[in-house]
Amino acid sequence: MTRLALGLDVGGSHVTAGLVDVDARRVVRAARRDVPHTAPLETLLRAWADTARDAAGDHAPHPLHLGLAMPGPFDAGSGTSHMTHKFAALRGVPLRPHLRRVLSPDFPADLPILFGNDADLFALGEWWASPYPPERLIGVTLGTGLGSGFILRGAAQQSGPGVPPGGELWNVPTASGTLENLLCGAAVTRLGQTLTGRQGSAADWANAARLGHPAALDVWAEYGARASALLAPVTAAFGADELVLGGNVTQAFTLFSPTLSLGPCRVRPSTHLEYAPLLGAAALPPAGIEEGQNR
Predict the structure, then answer these.
(1) How large is the angle between the packed helices 214-238 and 185-196, nearest 10 degrees?
(2) Do the domains 4-120+277-290 and 134-270 sit in the same CATH topology, yes or no?
(3) Could you state, in order of their start, the residue ranges of all structural domains in the chain?
(4) In which element (H, E) is residue 51 found?
(5) Which DSSP category does 88 fall into?
(6) Which of 43, 66, 136, 234 has the fewest CB atoms within 10 Å around its CB?
(7) Is beta strand 80-81 parallel, antiparallel or unpaired with respect to 74-75?
(8) Do 241 and 134 touch, CB atoms closer than 8 A?
């Protein structure tokens, strides 16, 4: 009998759900709905529940659990958001009883509902669904901001040797600014302006580089070298076997990877892209969440 779990990835403008075959470690059905983080609590909850139903299909299964990938700060144990910058309606609200209400009667009343940090679950999903999962993996998402997850033998780490506080890399300081300021999408824009005097988004510079424009190729070569200098100490401190990159900036991976070198640590773009957090949510161990294994 196929064992199934449901994963939800809660974003600022939409929610994605996936029905995951736990044994095959793959998403077998997915659904997505647009819902802004500014929506009222009931609107958010209903959108999440309806997207879960869409992913489950016409005949809702009896999944092992429902796992939610949430932006932080979020208390996974109590299922309570502490975000102040978005999702105002969620702040301070224990979500499990509300989710059970909106999921009824299509899902069992005792369905385990688990939570994890979205960047942690991106990294966990890439680890869990890998044919050869390494002992130590770091996942980094490069987009509007910078997210990170540190995985040790299948468990997200928020402390320990080589792990920054809370597993958060975005605010790690350098002489030139934080890692987020130096590696996010806007950083590519600033780098292009500095090197060429021209304006352009990360997507603009990627398109130009693919057309062979030398200035754009130089921008991405410099970005790769910068990423090497900033991320090599991180991977070395954790003893990472593999670094997995996700987020919109990673769409240009082939452009900056020639100058990205992390010593013995392998580096690759995400294999599962937007499905990675769904896989991570399906991989959540119930006991691990209750014991605070994921922030």
Answers:
(1) 130
(2) yes
(3) 4-120+277-290, 134-270
(4) helix 41-56
(5) G
(6) 43
(7) antiparallel
(8) yes
Strands 136-142, 66-70: pairing is: unpaired
CA 121, CA 128: separation in Å to the nearest integer?
10
Residue-by-residue DSSP string for 98-128: HHHHHHTTTS-TT--EEEEEHHHHHHHHHHH
State both tokens at 193: 């302006």
The answer to whether 22 and 64 have CB atoms below 8 angstroms apart is: yes
CA–CA separation, 129 vs 171, rounded Å? 29
CA 288 – CA 293 distance, rounded (Å): 5
pLDDT tens-digit series, residues 7-27: 999 999 999 999 999 999 999
Q: Which helix (H) or strand (E) holds 242?
A: strand 242-246
Bridge partners, residue 242, by sequence: 137, 266
Task: Look at the domain 134-270 and name its fold.
Answer: Nucleotidyltransferase; domain 5 (3.30.420)
